[in-house]
Amino acid sequence: MTRNFLSIFLLILSVNFVASQGNLDSGFVKALTSFAIQLFQEVTATISDNAMISPLSVQSILSLAMYGAKGETKLTMFDTMTYSNFKNVSYETVEKNFKELVNNFTGSRALVMAFKIYATNLFQISPEFQQIAIDSFSSEIESMSFSYEDTTPEKVAAYINAWIANKTRNRILDAVSPYQFEKLNSTRLVLVNTIYFKDNWLIMFDSGATHRDKFYINAKKYIMTKFMVKSEDYLYAKFPELNASALILTYEKSPMEMIILLPNARTGLNTLKQNLQTIDWNSKSVKKRFKITPTDLKIPKWQFEFNIELKDYLKNMGMLLPFSELADFNGIFESLDNKTNSKISKVIHKTFINVNERGTEASAASVMTMEATSLTLNPQIFHVDHPFIFMLRYYNSICFIGQVTQF
Ligand SMILES: *[C@@H]1O[C@H](CO)[C@@H](O)[C@H](O)[C@H]1NC(C)=O
Ligand SMILES: *[C@@H]1O[C@H](CO)[C@@H](O)[C@H](O)[C@H]1NC(C)=O
Ligand SMILES: *[C@@H]1O[C@H](CO)[C@@H](O)[C@H](O)[C@H]1NC(C)=O
Ligand SMILES: *[C@@H]1O[C@H](CO)[C@@H](O)[C@H](O)[C@H]1NC(C)=O
Ligand SMILES: *[C@@H]1O[C@H](CO)[C@@H](O)[C@H](O)[C@H]1NC(C)=O
Ligand SMILES: *[C@@H]1O[C@H](CO)[C@@H](O)[C@H](O)[C@H]1NC(C)=O
Asked: What is the annotated signal peptide range for this record (predicted)?
């Protein structure tokens, strides 16, 4: 499968716990899902090639940065991440819930999340920001020189990439390029988040049964690709209001689950995507709609990596101020004046996915650079032979979501 012929659209959604099961606040969980779907729609509206993003990774570094922001900049970030749309979600709630989430990941056998902050050694990090970064996000903080006298863009990029490669078991390589540190001496802060997930399916596919078959990229046109097949009991649900049906695949060690959302029509993907928000994916009623159903399952294998600069997408979603010269990130460094003020310059995002007979391996890295301001009996047929959406969920809630459009 060459990359050019593969047009799978994946979205890693937030890891969401259903209120009844998780220790997370329901408003926080809903904000993660809401931001995830919005970012997915925003990104997929402009890219038709393969793509995968991890909204959770993106939202976690944006949230961390938010605690260094002040005034309107902080409010804008809170609003754009949709926290303000939900009852009882405050800055304190967000911090408390990320702490819970990161701790939960740390105790998980299949899912790993890590944070790192590289800060300029020109200033002292403020104690408040440092405390939130370490206590709530379990971030490592390293003070370093971004001066041309001490280093080069190449060295800085290689240094950060080595950390990311280590945390993603070498699945995310060369996340940042030296070109992103062109303005090296105005770099103030680099915030990094990584997520790594690997687990086997609870019910593996038999590789001997995998065979080439047709995947319809539109109503009539198809391409040949490898399909995995299995006749088993799966959790299956119809979503007539979305003109789609859905199936859940579960994993061996982790409570993660993958949800495949298949439009009824071969050309139904865009409509499905537009209507994703009409379902409350965190609700118990959605969960109840999935019934154990004997199913004749046929699903393609896929693998690719993807990278994207998210700045313009985030700006389209309303996050303008934090990227502008008027940004106020005076909470990051200790300062009595505004000499230490910074703005977000880039949000680089890179992901990897591999879905095969054994299971799933998915990984993501987000790198935010901040720089100085200028300054039934009949088996249910479920043949995934045309564009579809899938999600990976952790504790009943969306964890990863994606879309496959062509090969
Ligand atoms: C993660 O959260 C779930 C749901 O609340 C809980 O059952 C599980 O024990 C937690 N795991 C860790 C390691 O905290
Ligand atoms: C919001 O918080 C109040 C007070 O703690 C509580 O009574 C209420 O049930 C909460 N609402 C939601 C939607 O969580
Ligand atoms: C990551 O770094 C740790 C500590 O240096 C090392 O033990 C581990 O093998 C590294 N992992 C990878 C995948 O490079
Ligand atoms: C960074 O370096 C460039 C040239 O190397 C110089 O023109 C610029 O003034 C420097 N900026 C700062 C903030 O030191
Ligand atoms: C639902 O999909 C069917 C094809 O299966 C199509 O004929 C119909 O127009 C779709 N309805 C909506 C509301 O999109
Ligand atoms: C620092 O910058 C912020 C935002 O631009 C502004 O509101 C504030 O008055 C400035 N503070 C000082 C001491 O200049």
From this structure: 1-20
Ligand 2 touching residue 376 (CB < 6 A): no
Residue 82 and residue 146 in one domain: yes
**Measured CA distances, 249 to 204, 359, 405 (Å):** 10, 10, 19
Q: Is there an atom of ligand 2 within 6 Å of 278 CB?
A: no
Nearest to 16 by CA among 66, 71, 82, 75: 82
Rounded to an integer, the average pLDDT of 26-31 is: 90
- CB 332: neighbour CB atoms within 10 A? 28
Asked whether residue 393 carries a pLDDT value surpassing 50, the answer given is: yes
Q: What is the DSSP string of 309-326?
A: E-HHHHHHTT--GGGSTT
Q: Are residues 275 and 233 both part of a single domain? A: yes
Q: Residues 6 or more apart from 254 whose CB is under 8 A from it?
A: 108, 109, 110, 111, 197, 199, 394
Judged by average pLDDT, the poorest of 141-145, 198-202, 311-315, 332-336 is 332-336
Number of domains in the chain: 2
Neighbouring residues of 288: CB distance < 8 A, sequence distance ≥ 6:
none
Question: In this predicted model, what pLDDT tens digit does every residue of 316-343 receive, in sequence order?
Answer: 999 999 999 999 999 999 876 667 789 9
Q: φ, ψ for residue 289 (rounded to 5)? A: -70, -20
Q: In a mutational test of the pocket of ligand 3, which residue from 166, 169, 171 has the highest number of ligand atoms less than 8 Å from its CB?
A: 166
Give yes or no: residues 164 and 131 share one domain. yes
Task: Give the residue ranges of DSSP H helices in 81-229.
Answer: 91-106, 127-135, 153-167
Q: Each residue of 176-203: pLDDT tens digit?
A: 999 999 889 899 999 999 999 999 999 9
Amino acid at 173: L
- The alpha carbon of 258 and the centre of ligand 1 are apart by a number of angstroms equal to 19
Ligand number nearest CA of 99 is 1
Contact of 239 with 279, CB cutoff 8 Å:
yes
Q: Which residue has the tokens 């070109």?
A: 179
Question: For 256-267, what is each residue's pLDDT tens digit?
Answer: 888 888 999 999
Cβ atoms of 24 and 287 closer than 8 Å: no
Domain holding 320, by residue range, is 25-199+303-357
How far away, in angstroms, is 162 Cα from ligand 3 center? Answer: 10
Same domain, 110 and 240: no
More confident: 5 or 199: 199
Question: Which pLDDT score is estimated for 222?
Answer: 93
Beta-bridged to residue 64, according to DSSP, are: none
